[in-house]
Amino acid sequence: MTTRSFGWSLSVVLLAACDHNGAAPTAPTAPAADPCPAAWLDAPAVDAPIAVPPGNPRVVLHVAATGTQNYTCSPGTDGGAPAWSFTGPEATLSDCKGAALGKHFATDAGAPEWQLADGAYVIAHKVAASPKSGAVPWLLLAADGHGPSGPLADARFVQRVNTTGGVAPDGPCDATTPGAVQKIPYTADYYFYAP
User: Fold this and answer.
1) CA nearest neighbour of 137 among 158, 165, 157
2) Which residue from 55, 96, 127, 149 could staple onto 36, CB 3.0 to 4.6 Å apart?
3) What phi, psi does 120 have (nearest 5°)?
4) Does residue 189 sit in helix, strand or coil?
């Protein structure tokens, strides 16, 4: 995993590099990390259905995801043919420089969760989708839970944008392959919004 640097983390590094009088020490113990450019936190242009509702203008975190969208061959309902059903993502979350920040996965209840290395997390549900050819749709999700601190503690909405891959498999899903799992590679950007 890689860890991305954000403006607030640079502030922490700069504060830590000063002594109690506010003067910089003569020999810093570690070089300050290069922060992500301010544009990293610019909200993306999206279709109207997945626009963030008014009152939530701040992008508090932007991460790039690389991983898989996972599908299981499930029995058909009411005697129908078996079909691939989405079971959740498995992805590494990274900053603008490719440094790992955390992971994205499905909770035991099947809800999408984003969890950072420090334990901060957001659990959400899908509000709207904007289909994209050859890739999983762009999404607007609303937070159902978050904590315990850090930038995700205030997140109310999440957007999934800039997707590649991840669509359901084309391969057979039939009575001979029940329970088979396929992990389809995908990438996306996730933006977390707060009031």
Assistant:
1) 165
2) 96
3) -65, 145
4) strand
Burial of 154 (0-12, 13-18, 19+ CB in 10 A): middle
User: pLDDT digit string (tens) for 115-125?
Assistant: 999 999 999 99
Q: The tokens of 190 are what?
A: 């996730």
Amino acid identity of residue 136, one-letter, is V
Q: Which two tokens stand for residue 48?
A: 């109207």
Are the C-beta atoms of residues 135 and 163 closer than 8 Å to each other? Answer: yes
Structure tokens at 194: 């707060």
Tell me what pLDDT residue 64 has.
98
Identity of residue 18? C
Residue 96 sits at the vertex; the CA angle it makes with 147 and 123, to the nearest 5 degrees, is: 25
Residues in the chain: 195
Residue pair 142/124 in contact by the 8 Å Cβ criterion? yes
Is the pTM above the cut of 0.90?
A: no
| Closest C-alpha to 89, from 102, 104, 100 | 104
pLDDT at 50 over 90: yes
59: left (phi over 0), alpha (psi -120 to 50) or beta: beta
Among the listed residues 170, 172, 169, the one whose alpha carbon sits nearest the alpha carbon of residue 183: 169
Please give the average per-residue pLDDT across 17-32, as a whole number: 42
User: Would the pLDDT of 72 be above 50?
Assistant: yes
